[in-house]
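FYI - complex with zinc ion, inputs then prediction.
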Amino acid sequence: MSNEASSSIRTSGGRPCPVCGKATYSRGGIHPQCAIVQADEGRKKQLIEKRKKEAESSKASGDKSKSKRWNKKCPKCSTEVHVRLKTCACGHKFDT
Ligand SMILES: [Zn+2]
Ligand SMILES: [Zn+2]
């Protein structure tokens, strides 16, 4: 309804800000508030990359831990039982 929005976008004079594209007269060629946004974006990207790597590594190790590593075989009935169980279902008692 108003022309305020379009009139505020003036590229004559200052350099265009790399974040919002609007002219800026700041020394760094970027609005102070846009510099904060830019820094935040970089931080976000780093966080996402970090989380991706963590998820991938935990995925890889998680799949391996689900294998027979936590099972031991009962010498009496040859049934695989959890390594922390001291007694098998058949009644055999493990030493460890
Ligand atoms: Zn800006
Ligand atoms: Zn058994």
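Residues 68-96 form one domain. The longest strand covers residues 71-73.
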